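Input.
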Amino acid sequence: QVQLVESGGGLVHPGGSLRLSCAASGFTFSSYVMNWYRQAPGKERELVATISSAGGSTSYTDSVKGRFTISRDNAKNTVYLQMISLEPGDTAVYYCNAEIWRINYWGQGTQVTVSS
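Output.
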């Protein structure tokens, strides 16, 4: 079965950095677009970054452009989200996502808290 397992979240000061990882299994990882979403308390889940199946194309929501980088290692079935210059507004639970045959799969999420 499809599994997505996020890791790498934590508490960081403003201006700090974190790298999130999502280990995927149960499907042909290299064939699918992968996404990172986040959900802050009291807000809707929002799409943060997307990467194409081969990794050659990426896109970001405006608020993270220039600060976040999505990447993937298809040999390791893992997608990453490198986050720098973190701001309190980045505080959220971050989720890895894959849409496979029109079904959305989600990981359990990893908490990122940016606070002084």
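The two ends are 40 Å apart (CA to CA).
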